Amino acid sequence: MVIHNISSSLANSLRQRRQRLANLIDFPAILWSGSSSPRNFPANVFPFRASSHFLYFAGLPLPKAAIRLEAGKLELFMDDPSPSSALWHGEIPKREEIAQIIEADAAKPLTELEFCVAEAATIAVQDAATWTQQSQLLNRWVLPQNPLQGIDLELAKAIVSLRLTHDEEALTELRKAAGVSVEAHKAGMAATPNVKREAEVRGAMEGVIIAHNMTTSYNSIVTVHGEVLHNEQYHHPLQPGDLLLADVGAETEMGWAADITRTWPVSGKFSSTQRDIYDVVLAAHDACIAKMRPGVEYGDIHLLAATVIAQGLVDLGILLGNAQDLVEMDAHALFFPHGIGHLLGLDVHDMEDLGDLAGYEEGRERSDRFGLGYLRLNRPLRPGMLVTIEPGFYQVPAILNNAHLRSKFENVVNWERLSQFNDVHGIRIEDDVLVTQEGSEVLTAALPNDADTVENLVNG
Ligand code: GLY
Ligand code: MN
Ligand code: MN
């Protein structure tokens, strides 16, 4: 448990966040932090991660705690550590000390919570022990997978409107996460010529993150099979002709995330086919970032990426036809099947515990189109939003061998030409981009992404 004094600027931000919430809702909210889940027996647990909504207002990752927010005031509910706790976990500050640190207006044991739940809204925490407790105390089902209703929905909308754009304190943390993630990627590139397996590159990258006393903000992807979008296997050997795709991001002690992907040649030199496709993905990445500014629809950024990729593949002779038409018929999605990115903040897919409430502007719903269904964000950009831009190209067997898709796109793919690109399994280039008043700022810009410099980083 990380409990230390917090800076006066963080304390100030926490107060402002609580006050801004109070300006949006006229009922109390109770947010639970959650508890650690056992791995194989109760005393051996997965690392604790506090609920992001709790962290946003409480500022410290306190396990088994709850806060009641009303009219800008915060009451902290948590139990003091048991007498035996000091033996195993060291001295942990008592409730009253923690209350002082986070400037709580009152501090009470957890048993008192049952007297304060009337008319209170909440949001389900992911771990079962906690949502069971939430359901029992509030006397209604509070389940992570249930659609939000009534005051819970109103609370969620209010929190979304706050967390959608980041205050200075959040941005300081997000920049820290980005900086350490950049160093992790450089370490991964530099380690590649000296190692034999994906796992060793992962070790070099996560080692940097751990050495900064941070954790990864999601399970790292470090793979020569980048076509498996969320590959979590690290046992493959690195062969000279392989591309290695690394999607690795750090999370600060306070829970703020980064999310970066780079793809580099194991040998330190892209083949000509790998380079051709890499440059198409990079062109899409750069075009998207160049277009970002307040008011621009994120959905249009996605379509821009799709169009640049389609045009690039036409130029390479892989797709046949006009780029715009190809995107309209979703042909780009054969190779770029996911969305251009997502919100980033305390969660790597920020606020996705609320379904599409944060990602989709009110009144909008996910499309069922092949080329649009995985779009996670569909809103106009606003200053202070942090999003990822992560175009990619993948040869996914489940897509390219799908009989229905194959016949639908039979005439717009030059399959023979495509077969010349067999050494490209998956390429993604992902950066974290802050929307500013005038345009955008790439928080991860210190990590080069042009093919030459990436090669140089691998070659040391
Ligand atoms: N790291 C997961 C993602 O890029 O969405
Ligand atoms: Mn991402
Ligand atoms: Mn990622």
Give the topology.
Elements: H1 8-24, E1 29-32, E2 38-41, E3 44-45, H2 52-58, E4 65-70, E5 73-78, H3 85-89, H4 95-101, E6 106-108, H5 128-138, H6 150-163, H7 168-191, H8 198-211, E7 215-216, E8 221-223, E9 243-248, E10 250-251, E11 260-265, H9 272-291, H10 298-315, H11 323-328, E12 386-389, E13 392-394, H12 397-400, H13 403-408, H14 415-419, E14 426-428, E15 431-435, E16 440-442, H15 451-458
Parallel strand pairs: 5-6
Antiparallel strand pairs: 1-4, 2-3, 4-5, 7-10, 8-9, 9-11, 12-15, 13-14, 15-16
Bound molecules: glycine (GLY) and manganese (II) ion (2 copies).
InterPro entries: Aminopep_P_N, Creatin/AminoP/Spt16_N, Creatinase/aminopeptidase-like, Pept_M24, Peptidase_M24B_aminopep-P_CS, X-Pro_dipept-like
Cofactor: Mn(2+)
Pfam families: AMP_N (PF05195), Peptidase_M24 (PF00557)
